[in-house]
Amino acid sequence: MSIFTIFLKKKKNLFNTNTIKKVLIIRNDCIGDMIVTTPFIRYLADKGYEVYISSRKSSLEIIDNNPHITGRFSYNDKSFGELINSLKMVRKHEFDLAIDARFHRRLDLKHLLFCCFVRSTHLLSYNKSNIKSFNISLPYYHPENHVTNQLKYYLTYLNIKYSSFNYEIFIDSVKEKNVDIFITNNIKPQNKFVVINPYGSSNYRCLSERQIKMLCDLLKNFHQEYKIILIGQGEKFDKLFISDCIKFQSPTISDVIPLIKKADLVISVDTSIVHIASAFSTKCISIYMEPPPPDSNSLKSVYSRELSNYKYLQQDLFLDKKYIKKHSPNLNLKVNSHIWSPNDINGKQIVFYVNSMEKIDPDNLIRSISKYI
After folding, report:
1. Which of left, alpha, beta for 159 (phi over 0: left; psi -120 to 50: alpha)?
2. pLDDT at residue 9 tops 80
3. Is 173 helix (H, G, I), strand (E, B) or coil?
4. pLDDT, average across residues 177-197
5. What is the mean pLDDT of residues 92-114?
6. Is domain 175-291+354-370 given the CATH code 3.40.50.2000 in the classification?
7. Counting CB atoms within 10 angstroms of each CB, which of 3, 68, 75, 264 has the fewest?
8. Matching fold, domains 3-157 and 175-291+354-370
9. Where are the alpha helices (DSSP H) in the chain?
10. Which fold has domain 3-157?
């Protein structure tokens, strides 16, 4: 892996914000990441920059109709050939500044390769002092700070003033009309409705069928003013049936956005839905997980955690060894429930220390949720 630190040339141009006109934000990740980036995009555009975005196809849907964006590129790394094709499309343009906006410190060699070969006068990132292609590496080791603080740090470096950091999503009018029809056909005018998203992007982030039924029973028995709408995708969702609940079919994330906006309450295990709710200040109860401490009576558990910590340390050193050796920053792992917490006064967060949503005691889950309804 040292090939990156040895052979890639360091950009030697002096950085001057007055020369910046065309900016590429390199996201290359998921839906929630894009949502929290929307205020950052807005401030760059308000400064007068032409703003381009690179990311995965699903997350690019979030910026459909966004007036602050000049252009966008679809990133695909499923194979080396597709990665090269993604890079070829971006390299048709030359940028004054490319910003690696990934939030985590984990090493992703494909993403790193992509960043290094973008045609840009300046390449900016966090914690990349060991990678020559990044001529601007800002130190950022705050494992408990909200994710938006990292983007604010970039703005400060670029001498861009900011105030509100509210997310913004621009809804497609056709999809909003489809949701209006769905609400008219399924929900009486006097009813409120709650949207429940019981499934995350991975199996360990999904509620069990029992947990889902108990949650629906809580609402049906004690909060009858709410009509229950279930959202999701995939085989689990297709097989799910709970009486007196309505399933909303949403082929893409953009189909469900108007529903989240119009809901009276959202309950979700998935951070992308939580951030959509935050964008519209919809009341939301979010269910988060943090890994439990290792079992001191289990050598396997202890060694597994130590191995994981060692792996992350090596990744940090690979990317930012020069800074780490000189300044000894806080290398603790990030606390996801802090970093990805709702960025809105109407967002309520419940955190469980488990390795899987299904391991949450159902009674404890229902008690915790009922406090915020």
Report:
1. left
2. no
3. helix
4. 93
5. 93
6. yes
7. 3
8. yes
9. 3-7, 31-46, 57-60, 80-90, 109-116, 147-157, 173-186, 209-222, 234-239, 253-262, 271-279, 299-327, 336-339, 362-370
10. Rossmann fold (3.40.50)
Integer-rounded Cα radius of gyration of the chain: 22
Domain boundaries, the chain: 3-157, 175-291+354-370
Split at pLDDT 50, 70, 90, the class of 101 is very high
Token pair belonging to 16? 């001057």
3-state secondary structure of 365: helix
* Average pLDDT estimate for 282-306: 86
Q: How far apart are CA 275 and CA 160, in angstroms?
A: 24
The confidence band for 145, taking pLDDT boundaries of 50, 70 and 90, is very high
Q: How far is CA 121 from CA 13, 136, 290, 291, in A?
A: 7, 11, 40, 41
**Tokens 């429930």 belong to which residue?**
337
Contacts of residue 298, Cβ cutoff 8 Å, sequence gap at least 6: none
**Taking a C-beta distance cutoff of 8 angstroms, is the pair 167, 357 a contact?**
no
Helices 362-370 and 209-222 sit at what angle, rounded to 10 degrees? 40
Q: Which range among 10-19, 21-30, 94-103, 257-266 shows the weakest confidence by mean pLDDT? A: 10-19
Q: Considering all CA atoms of the chain, what is the largest pairwise distance in Å, rounded to the nearest integer?
A: 67
Give the list of residues 6+ apart from residue 341 with CB closer than 8 angstroms, or none: 146, 286, 288, 347, 349
Least confident piece of the model among 10-24, 89-103, 155-169, 238-252: 10-24
Q: Give Cα 194 to chain centroid, integer Å.
A: 23
DSSP 8-class letter at 163: -
